[in-house]
From TrEMBL:
The keyword Transcription applies. PROSITE patterns: HTH_GNTR. PANTHER family: HTH-TYPE TRANSCRIPTIONAL REPRESSOR GLAR, TRANSCRIPTIONAL REGULATOR, GNTR FAMILY. This is FCD domain-containing protein. Gene3D superfamilies: GntR ligand-binding domain-like, Winged helix-like DNA-binding domain superfamily/Winged helix DNA-binding domain. One of its GO terms (molecular function) is DNA-binding transcription factor activity. It comes from Azoarcus taiwanensis. Keywords: DNA-binding, Transcription, Transcription regulation.
């Protein structure tokens, strides 16, 4: 999927500058593991791969450092942030706390417009999941965008912009791990059924049930990651 199509799917503006375009391409490559954890990101090499100038690339890398996907090393440049089970467990448990609280507030305060947005987001996600199941497209990247849209719609009525902000950071941090769990299915799960259960409890305004199912849904990915081979993350770190 090109940058324009992905931006449309996510409901975000198409990149308008070279910096934004380089940022999105680099971010996608990190999330998908094309740039593995620990890889040195040398500007003099990457500027040719991404066909942008050194200054543009440095700005994109600084944006990725703000996201926590890249680590700045002073005069030594940048490196892809490492991954580990302990890191993902911390991300996951903090995300459960924030996202469940945000969902509870959204259910209590959300109006008809919020409810309609949840219905629409679930419908778009369902279409993507049906196509994935039938192997008729969309790409995994499009599914990820619609999955993110659904989770964002669930908590959109939460009045705390800080909760939403930090939930967004944690969601982004979990993407690399979620890709690993999806590609290496270590546990049996029906992700669409999980989403449908969250959706139905939310629309019924049953906050206790919705939050319990949401927490279990998020923790299932952690369970899948914990079943990876013990040396998986060490091998990933040493790939480059």
């Amino acid at each position: 999927m090109n940058d324009a199509a992905l931006a449309e799917t996510r409901g975000t503006p198409e990149p308008k500058t070279l910096v934004e375009a380089a940022y999105h391409r680099l971010r996608r490559d990190i999330i998908e593991g094309i740039r593995p954890p620990g890889e040195k990101l040398r500007v003099e090499h990457l500027k040719d791969d991404y066909e942008v100038g050194a200054g543009t690339l440095r700005e994109a890398l600084l944006m990725l450092a703000t996201d926590g996907l890249v680590i700045g090393q002073g005069q030594r440049g940048f490196r892809v942030a490492p991954i580990s089970i302990s890191d993902f467990e911390d991300i996951t448990r903090t995300r459960v706390l924030l996202e469940c609280d945000a969902l509870r507030q959204s259910i209590a305060l959300g109006d008809d417009v919020w409810e309609a947005s949840v219905v629409a987001a679930f419908h778009r996600l369902t279409r993507a999941e049906q196509k994935l199941a039938d192997h008729t497209a969309p790409s995994l990247e499009e599914w990820e965008a619609r999955n993110r849209g659904f989770h964002e719609a669930l908590i959109a009525a939460c009045p705390s912009r800080w909760i939403r902000h930090f939930q967004n950071i944690l969601y982004q941090q979990s993407e690399r791990y979620r890709r690993i769990a999806l590609f290496r299915q270590t546990i049996a799960r029906d992700i669409h059924a999980e989403h449908q259960a969250i959706f139905e409890a939310t629309i019924e305004r049953d906050a206790d049930t919705a939050c319990a199912i949401l927490a279990e849904h998020i923790l299932r990915t952690l369970e899948a990651i914990k079943r990876m081979p013990p040396d998986f993350f060490e091998r990933r770190a040493n790939e480059r």
